[in-house]
Amino acid sequence: MPVSLPSPWVVCLCADWCGLCRDYREVLQQVATRYPGNRFAWLDIEDQADLLGDLDIETFPTLLVADGQGVLFLGPVTTHADTLSRLLGSLQAQDVKKTAHSEVTKNLVEALPGLPGLWL
Predict the structure, then answer these.
(1) Which H or E run includes 43?
(2) What kind and span of H or E run contains 113?
């Protein structure tokens, strides 16, 4: 019998001081209702800097889509709901290959369930 793995995290890596990020939080919440099989979180990179280690966020918003087995996507995204929906739809394909976790992404994904106030 196959083992059921927890659903992937869709994590917006942003900063609360960034107006674009604050606006994107609403987009993320909208899209989350269309993808109940994923867990969504909005993470302020300054409040959680200790979790991000040497992960360099150069552009806002940056999205991490990952589960305990690996990373499906890590990179900047445009702020449109349709773009996020297309990305998540494409990542649901069974043949999508995961990239092995770095130490930072592994630690971040493992810490998410215990962080209060992040889940959407």
Answers:
(1) strand 39-44
(2) none
First-to-final CA distance of the chain:
32
Residue pair 8/72 in contact (Cβ under 8 Å)? The answer is yes
Structure tokens at 117: 């106030």
In whole angstroms, give the CA distance from residue 95 to residue 117.
Answer: 33
Residues 78, 27 contacting (CB under 8 angstroms): no
Give the Cα separation of 89 and 86 in Å (integer). 5
pLDDT (tens digit, 9 = 90+) per residue, 24-80? Answer: 999 999 999 999 989 999 999 999 898 888 888 989 999 999 998 999 999 999 999
Phi-psi bin for 10: left (phi > 0), alpha (psi -120 to 50), beta?
A: beta
**pLDDT over 90 for what percent of the chain?**
65
Task: Show the domains of the chain with their CATH numbers.
Answer: 9-114 (3.40.30.10)
What local confidence, expressed as pLDDT, does residue 33 receive? 93
Contact 79, 20 (CB under 8 A): yes
| Residue 23 main-chain phi, psi, to 5 deg | -65, -40
